[in-house]
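Backbone shapes recur. Consider a single case.
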Amino acid sequence: MKNIYNPIHTREILSRIDKLSPDSQPQWGQMDVAQMLAHCSSFQDIALGNSFPIRGWLGILIGTFVKPLFYNDKPLTRNMSTIPTTLIADEREFEKEREILKQSIIAFQNNGPERCTTHPHPFFGKLTSEQWGKGIYKHLDHHLKQFGV
């Protein structure tokens, strides 16, 4: 499984982000490309320990049992639900959101596993830094595939 802590995998993700344009269209879902970039940045904020969404009741009930979905080799399913605080519905500026996301990814990779959040994921609960690294890659890959890159 690819891991955002691996510099090769980070460069791959950043290169794919650079292939996006303001006109990129989703193959599924309701977000436009700028909203998707902002959504991914919002998710990065959780992993960086800059945002602490509360765990919902469903995550508390089943999150621990299904958390391998976050970091295993199987792709995320289309149109799956997301953390409510990472839903982006307002208009966003593409270039600004792209740069914010790229800088967030670089910061996460540069910080390394030892500086990853220890706060529980709002759905899956406690994750190791390795699980976060794989999950971050998988989440970004999912949304980049959503926009054809």
The mean pLDDT is 95. Helices lie at 7-18, 33-48, 57-66, 68-71, 94-111, 129-146.
